[in-house]
Amino acid sequence: MIPGAVFMSLLAGALFGVFKGVALVVFTATTGASSCYFLSKLIGRPLVFSLWPDKLTFFQNQVAKRRERLLNYMLFLRVTSTLPNTFINVASPIVDVPYHIFFLATFIGIIPAAFVTVRAGIALGDLQSVGDLYDFQSIVTLFLLGVLSVTPTLMGNKGKP
């Protein structure tokens, strides 16, 4: 939610390594998103309605349509960034996304992006060329994180025709 979050994620990677850096970034990003959620729940309704009336109507319709599998939908939004994260943070309480679903989707959904930025922060110190950012281990790890983050959606659709 704050300007420069990507740079702080890069710095977390350079200072703390992959595991601690990703954990720190995910924890702080989820905490920040949760703060936005609760602030919006308390005082944000008029602001969100005035800034994004069309987007809010679209989001409200999508949430209502996907109420049974709302976690899957929210996870999809976080992983793909279909809607801006700032909008998701402030609009979710207004369209009645329960906090536990918002929290889980945020926590799990930002792991792939956090991994990429933290890894980039580590790589920046040793960077000789752009090709150095794309080693086989990074690509496989990123692929596995992506598969893991959409697994709930894939498992939920098994019973559907």
Automatic annotation (TrEMBL):
**What InterPro entries does the entry give?**
TM41A/B, VTT_dom
Q: Give the UniProt subcellular location, in the record's own words.
A: Membrane
Parts of the chain that traverse the membrane: 6-39, 75-95, 101-122, 134-155
Mind telling me which GO cellular component terms the entry cites? membrane
| Pfam families documented for this protein | VTT_dom
Query: Which superkingdom heads the taxonomic lineage of this protein's source?
Result: Eukaryota
Q: Where is the VTT domain?
A: 2-121
Entry membrane topology: Multi-pass membrane protein
Question: Would the keyword NADP turn up in this protein's UniProt record?
Answer: no
The answer to whether keyword Magnesium applies is no
Chief subcellular location equals membrane
Keywords for this protein: Membrane, Transmembrane, Transmembrane helix
Q: What is this protein called?
A: SNARE associated Golgi protein family
UniProt source species: Abeliophyllum distichum
